[in-house]
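Milestone M4 deliverable, item 7.
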Amino acid sequence: MMKKSAPPKKVMPKPAIKMKGLQWTKVPAKKLTTTLWANLPEPDWDWMDFKTIETTFAMPEKKELGGGSGSGSGGGGDGGGSAKPVAKPGSVSMVDPKRGQNCTILLSRLGKLTLEEIRDGIIAADEKMFDLEMVKGLQNFI
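Output delivered:
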């Protein structure tokens, strides 16, 4: 019984620049012998425009943080120093994240009450709405 050997490795042109990854699972060479891919002739790469493929699927260049080298007319204040990263616009939190999460958990125990109902319950010291544990928890946030 003769064992089938793996087909010779195909010669592929290498790109001149780093390319984006292609998400696929490579078929092991041993399994290729039983597929139609093993019997294909060596492709003729002359018809393919590799420059277009390289520009289309090139890996984007990483932008370097920290600005340029700072050479030029020293100390004019025109951006020659180190650049600070620009903060992204978004929400500003005035509360420590852990404390904020604890407050959210505590308030979620109140269910679907509105802020006015919660305020009125605190002012009236409603024992049905606020048990001893809830009052102690609210005390921590005041």
